[in-house]
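Quick check before the chapter quiz. The format below is the same one you will see on the exam, so make sure you can read both the input and the output lines.
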Amino acid sequence: MNNEALNKVFHALGNSIDYRDGKVTLKDESAVRSQIGSLVELSALGSKAEQSWARYIVRLLAVELGAFPASIHELYIARGRGDVPPTFTVPAMNLRALSHDAARCVFRVAKDIDAGAFIFEIARSEIGYTEQRPAEYATNILAAAIAEGYQGPVFIQGDHFQISAKRYKEDPTKEIAAVEELTVEAMQAGFLNIDIDTSTLVDINQVGEPAQQRLNSELSAHFTHFIRQHEPAGVTVSVGGEIGEVGGRNSNEAELRAYVDGFQTKLDELGSGQAGLSKISIQTGTSHGGVVLPDGSVAKVKVDFDTLLNLSRVARNEYGFAGAVQHGASTLPEDAFGKFVEAEACEVHLATNFQNILYSNVPQALLAEVYAYIDEKYAEDRKPEQTDEQFHYENRKRALGPFKAKLMQLSQAEKETIFQAWEEQFRMLFGHLAIAGTRKYVDEFVSRTHPEVMRAFYFGEEVEQEEVKDLAD
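Here is the expected output.
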């Protein structure tokens, strides 16, 4: 035991807790809630021992205070069988920077409107360029729940745990193993919702949808079987599949049926009686991060809501899923978000506009430093026809990890401008997505069984960040 690091954690919390043999005891709950942000800073910027203790203690404190990682599987399956109405769309939010503070904004709004159906997520790609391994990301979210006094299930999701088509072609076994290792790491950190993305391997040159989707279906089944073998006891991890890479051609009903039928056949071969998917992601016209015009503005994107409604109903009525999932939607105009509810989408993924809000509100000197870093670090990636605005917009996400400390060390006044804009954005989104009052569905259907906190996980060797340039967000 590293007593020096543990003592630093105690000191950061104002000696408001005791710890012994895997158990925390509260001495001053209000002090814990008001000072938990100091453990977030240690988790992100401290020494290896300080990071381990901070993350472990936050996880224990969250459970002690009634906020625990959970799977949304039961709620989604209840929606699939008609016990929960398809009258709201669950926001799944990728919080790439100042994640703890952004999550606090989410929890504040959620408490105000009695919402329970919302997800925090991070993609395999984002884990790399934001330099947030699953344990750090989960710490940010759970500490936010503690700070805001939020109690109940907290849904944390691995978004786009994606197979790189390039790396799969070079060495399929190695690439599959990389995703498996990330999946285990994420589940141990409290990610009890995993979106498998093997849609990169769909081969539209094959004849017929079953042949085109075959590898996608079979590998999705493989990963689902792997998750069922490794998920925590008493928990059914929510697993999502994907039939079309976001930004490509729109999905259709034949593709959905081919994928799901092939998936289920393969999953049954791997072991009968296993829980399958709870949702399915489709392509309806959006693109991750939006399409950037030469002046740096984001082009308007048309979403095929008719396809979204049709495929949501097929997924729900014929396969028992919650419905279809919409990716890459955060840069759409405000009046588009209510249409996801009308189209009965079960979930919508939101990321880039939160990042845009951040960069629109940081001090200009810091923004100039970020752009100078991008110009130097990624010059070779610049396309000849790109304007500065296009190049910076496309690549500024890659500065979030290297500038993590500087963002966290902004003054409180500088941060408050960002937080206010984020909170307004979350309030607008949650209103349009109609998640007010969804706490009752979470309370009714979501299991309160949560995994044992594994001390060994937090004190093991941290996985090295991988190259994620060819992965989607």
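If your answer matched, good. The first strand starts at residue 17 and ends at 20.
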